[in-house]
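Deliverable D2.4 — example input (structure tokens):
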């Protein structure tokens, strides 16, 4: 069954991933700045990801997962978020194409 993906679902999935990052970082006893230094990203990048405000490449999540000894949990959750975002983008593109096609005058 095909389900419509909403922008809110994408936002919530990013926030959930960010909450996981925060939990793993706190469990490791690290600050945002110390995690950032370990994985060579800025503290603001870590902070923005923790609140779901921005996106980052898979390499960020691989480095964070390793630095926090998360056992692949962050990588797996990032993949789920990335898949949801890709499906949302495809759904949006399809909707735009259908509107364009339906709104076109007949030849």
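Example output (designed residues):
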């Amino acid at each position: 069954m095909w389900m419509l993906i909403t922008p809110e679902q994408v936002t919530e999935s990013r926030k959930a991933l960010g909450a996981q990052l925060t939990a793993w970082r706190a469990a490791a006893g690290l600050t945002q700045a110390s995690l950032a230094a370990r994985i060579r990203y800025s503290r603001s990048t870590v902070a923005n990801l923790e609140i779901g405000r921005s996106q980052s490449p898979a390499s960020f999540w691989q480095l964070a997962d390793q630095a926090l000894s998360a056992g692949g949990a962050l990588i797996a959750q990032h993949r789920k978020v990335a898949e949801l975002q890709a499906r949302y983008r495809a759904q949006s593109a399809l909707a735009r194409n259908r509107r364009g096609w339906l709104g076109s005058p007949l030849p």
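The chain has five helices and no strands.
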